[in-house]
Amino acid sequence: MPPAEPMPGPAPVTDAHLHLWDLAESDYAWLAGAPEPLRRTVAVEDVREGLLDLGVTRVILVQADDTAEDTAHLQRTARAIEADGRLARADVVGWLPLTDPGVVAEALADPRRTDHLVGVRHLVHDEPDPGFLDRPEVARSLDLLAAAGLPLDVPDAFERHMGQVARLAARHPTLTVVLDHLGKPPLGDEAAMGRWRTQIAAIAERPNTVAKLSGLATSGNGDFEEAAEHALALFGPQRLMIGSDWPIAPRALDLGSGFAPLLAHVRTWSPADVAAVTHGTAQRVYRRLGEAARTG
Q1: CA 197, CA 119: separation in Å to the nearest integer?
Q2: CB within 8 A of 9, min separation 6: which ones?
């Protein structure tokens, strides 16, 4: 008898939404209102073993402050993670001053500013101007991101941003717009969930949008299964990716209270869907400048 074929292992996992911050590097003013366990520096050493245990091979470090210092800290951290070698790859969704397209253009031409950079995000929910994403100078910066092949991540602290995401994607059809945390569905509130379903359907209609299965354990009552299935049906696996949102979880700094159950649920899907959502979509969307698009 020929030897049996080895059973395939689980698909590799990209954690597409990991936060690390250093209180010595930037202000992180929002931490003043955060749960007490989060009001400290959080480093990769606090989470690396847990990520490895879950099969994570790549991490996307996502900015947590609208400062060049926070982004530079993440870039240094990404280089250190790769030098360590236990996680194969680390990249950064950083911050750029979107209200100043001239500075954005300069930054995109500077290899130091774009090192390990695979996307840009701005904490729009902290902006005094609720129309920040609709400003003409921001639109010019977004055109520069699109030309460079960098996506825009949009946080989702307020319901108004859902409509803005759909408009933004329509106005910038060559820009990939990434909706963080599925727009924070109000899990457990059926009336509010009806509005969320309408809003996220409008976003999914735009082919240049991608959604993250992340942060759902702290959304509403945390009962995420129905929202995850709904997102899969709307976006399909090729426009859906998974992230931990660590260290933010029902139990702060605990992968087991947020990311692990979400990943376990996704792994009940078909092998092709699992491969796309846990790795392939992030591989295609989050690329460094000049890096060729890949699939799988």
Answers
A1: 26
A2: none
Buried b (16+ CB within 10 A) or exposed e, 88-112: eebbbbbbbbbbebeebbebbeeee
Using alpha carbons, select from 283, 289, 292 the residue that is nearest to residue 114: 289
- Distance between CA atoms of residues 37 and 215, nearest Å: 17
Question: pLDDT value at position 8?
Answer: 55
Q: CA–CA separation, 283 vs 279, rounded Å?
A: 6
Cα–Cα dist 72/79, whole Å: 11
Give the tens place of pLDDT for each residue, 244-267: 999 999 999 999 999 999 999 999
* Contacts by 225-228, CB closer than 8 A, 24 or more apart: 225/265, 227/182, 227/185, 227/187, 227/193, 228/262, 228/265, 228/266
